[in-house]
Design a protein that fits this description.
heterodimer, A: alpha/beta, Amidase signature (AS) enzymes, eleven-stranded mixed β-sheet, 18 helices, 11 strands, globular, disordered N terminus, B: mainly alpha
């Protein structure tokens, strides 16, 4: 039976993790023991483990406390720190599910490069966090393991006061907001690190596309997927970024060392952090922004002005077409990437005997993927089919146009640019762009479902503020302002500029 | 941007009419407030898939069947599921139509599809072409470059370990009679 639904209520709500987070941060003096032990218990029970937002790591969770583990971890710049990885980042010691039924029994034969780098730097992995299945969603409600609620709000689902954590890295953001670990890894395809960080009141950093290795990251849309870092401490985010900012020959999209070195010298020359030009893209001034979001945006721009920086209005017209481009590329790439899951060599396979090999694959895929993933695969295959037109190519052209428009706005020449005309006159251009992360704070579960029952595109268009930086691969951070987030965007490769400005802004919060 | 054609790989830069611009400086707090209170568009424009637009997209039962097959999903769906699917594909097409705004021609079929913009360094700054000698030397070096982490050595990936909850083999029953 095909399960295609335009709007899907979560199959089951699993507030237990969030209740635990909420209780831990509110009243328990040592929340770690109870949380870790509960994870160990659920990990032993593989059926109920599937209901948890965090699955335990057998390597790091079998001692009495996390701090004992962290203290005995190898020396390095992250020695003594703990972290949680989004469950689309593969590890050898536990299942790597992508929050999908089809991978619910999958154990990777290798560790992701990011996990190995953090291990070498002395950080301890505590567990894996929930996500929208394969990263497809903005709410962490599209998961085989249930919904992750937002620990900043009440988690009483019955009262209608529970709020979504955002997504798709909602489990990572909720875990950080609940003080479970020093930081968490997420992945950001169209805003999946920044938006949940904003909803959960934490910092979420999406570095430049290609900076951090994607080896061992379960692909959703490979031209956009970027590993990101979530923490409530900007200095921790920066330290983790420096550990992960390495070329990896296993990842063909990794930025080569010569480009990294060239960026290092350019960024240190070009940016005078005491007198920056800050751009406000007028296409981000949409009528849908809440009054609170506008107030927060105003307050941050005012702070930057008071710090001596120049604030300018800029125009990047292709931002208006960015969502159409993004959802064409992302669904097409998803249809291709997810075609590998057939449940034959690995992954969930049906117990029912099938007459043909083809029937087995159809049964596994139909039962293995959730409704939103099925819809995106179907949309992707339709978009790529001859019936609909050559939209994928058109979407890459809009993407290229957007990159060129950003190049006209930024001071720093794009490291890939070989068009000298673009860079003749750079005076008066911007060092950073500033915009809100989301058009409003986290909605309640009820509001979220009501909105999407009208039209599933409602969920897609809310990504308007985060998708342009994803399409252009720009380093972008979301820093918290209460229950909202503000994005600082830099030119491709100017990650350090983005971090430096964020540190200053967080000092004067 | 990398272009693949009959003459091999070439790098080219597409010329766009660039419309981005740096506007005025927001000198005072009042200027900032005014700028943020003057919206230039609304997201509703993107989802205002009015009936006329939706109806202009034709998605037949045959197309639905084809897309389901392409996706390796069960084609045995109810009429209600089919209706939902037609509606989803139509909404996606109305959404995608915004890609063609500001275009002189609205034809969605392109004559050339050998260009593909990606944010990959070698697409924009390809290195020197390899000589035959270098290529052969690379092939010679391959045996030393195999990586167990990529499953490139015998036994480095064990299927049974990857599926600890599953029986290691799927069984397909042959049709009786």
């Amino acid at each position: 039976m095909l399960r295609v639904r335009i709007v899907g209520r979560p199959q089951k709500l699993v507030p237990s993790f969030c209740r635990l987070v909420h209780r831990a941060s509110a009243s328990t003096s040592d929340p770690w023991n109870s949380l870790i032990s509960s994870r160990i218990n659920t990990n032993k029970d593989t059926t109920s483990a599937e209901k948890n937002t965090v699955t335990g790591s057998s390597t790091s969770c079998n001692s009495s406390t996390a701090s004992t583990d962290a203290a005995s971890s190898p020396a390095g710049s992250l020695s003594g720190t703990t972290y949680i990885a989004k469950d689309n980042i593969v590890t050898t010691h536990e299942f790597s599910t992508g929050a999908s039924r089809i991978l619910s029994n999958y154990r990777s034969p290798f560790d992701a490069t990011v996990v190995l780098l953090l291990d070498a730097a002395g950080s301890t992995l505590l567990g894996k966090s929930n996500l929208d299945e394969f990263g497809m969603g903005s709410s962490t409600t599209n998961s085989h393991y249930g919904t992750t609620l937002n620990p900043l709000y009440s988690v009483e689902v019955e009262t209608g006061k529970a709020h979504i954590s955002g997504g798709s890295s909602g489990g990572s953001a909720a875990a950080v907001a609940g003080k479970l670990a020093n930081f968490a890894l997420g992945t950001d395809t169209g805003g999946s690190v920044r938006q949940p960080a904003s909803y959960c009141g934490t910092v979420g950093f999406k570095p430049t596309y290609g900076r951090i290795s994607r080896w061992g990251v379960i692909s959703y849309a490979q031209t956009l997927d970027t590993v990101g870092i979530i923490s409530d401490d900007i200095h921790t985010v920066e330290k983790v970024y420096h550990v992960l900012d390495k070329y990896d020959d296993k990842d063909p999209t990794s930025l080569p060392d010569d480009i990294r070195n060239s960026l290092k010298s350019k960024c240190s020359e070009d940016v005078n952090s005491t007198s920056l030009t800050v751009g406000v893209p007028r296409e981000f001034v949409v009528g849908d922004l809440s009054q609170e979001v506008k107030e927060v945006w105003f307050s941050v721009l005012s702070q930057l002005q008071d710090m001596g920086h120049t604030v300018k209005i800029v125009s990047v017209p292709s931002i208006k077409q960015s969502l159409s481009s993004y959802y064409t590329l992302a669904t097409a790439e998803a249809a291709s990437n997810l075609s590998r899951y057939d449940g034959v060599r690995y992954g969930q396979t049906t117990e029912d005997l099938q007459e043909k090999a083809h029937d087995l694959i159809v049964a596994n895929r139909t039962n293995g993927f959730g409704p939103e993933v099925q819809r995106r695969i179907l949309l992707g295959n339709y978009t790529l089919s001859s019936e609909s037109g050559d939209h994928y190519i058109k979407a890459t052209q809009v993407r290229e146009k957007l990159v060129n428009e950003f190049n006209q706005v930024f001071n720093l020449r794009h490291v890939f640019s070989n068009d000298t005309n673009v860079d003749k006159e750079t005076s008066g251009r911007c060092d950073i762009l500033v915009a809100p992360t989301a058009i409003n704070s986290a909605p309640t579960l009820e509001e979220y479902h009501q909105q999407n029952e009208t039209n599933f595109l409602n969920d897609y268009v809310n990504d308007i503020l985060t998708v342009p930086a994803s399409l252009a691969g720009l380093p972008t951070i979301s820093i918290p302002r209460g229950k909202h987030g503000i994005q600082i965007m830099g030119q491709f490769g100017a990650d350090q500029t983005v971090l430096d400005v964020s540190k200053k802004l967080m000092e004067v919060k | 941007m990398i272009r693949i054609n009959s003459r091999g790989l070439t790098v080219s830069t597409r010329r766009f009419q660039t419309l981005s611009k740096i506007g005025s400086t927001l000198k005072t707090k009042e200027d900032i407030r005014n700028a943020l209170n003057s919206p230039v568009w609304s997201l509703k424009e993107l989802i205002s898939s009015n009936e006329k637009d939706m109806k202009s997209v034709e998605v037949s039962a045959k197309t639905i069947n084809k897309v389901l097959k392409l996706s390796a999903f069960d084609t045995n769906i109810t009429a209600e599921q089919e209706k939902s699917l037609v509606s989803a594909l139509s909404a996606q097409m109305v959404f995608i139509k915004h890609l063609y705004e500001n275009d002189e021609k609205s034809d969605s079929v392109v004559e050339e599809n050998d260009t593909h913009f990606r944010l990959i360094a070698s697409d924009h700054n390809p290195g020197e072409p390899l000589t035959l000698k270098q290529l052969l030397a690379q092939i010679e070096e391959l045996p030393e470059k195999v990586d167990p982490a990529k499953g490139e050595t015998q036994g480095s990936f064990n299927v049974a370990n990857m599926n600890p909850r599953n029986r290691p083999f799927a069984t397909i029953r042959s049709k009786q009679g």
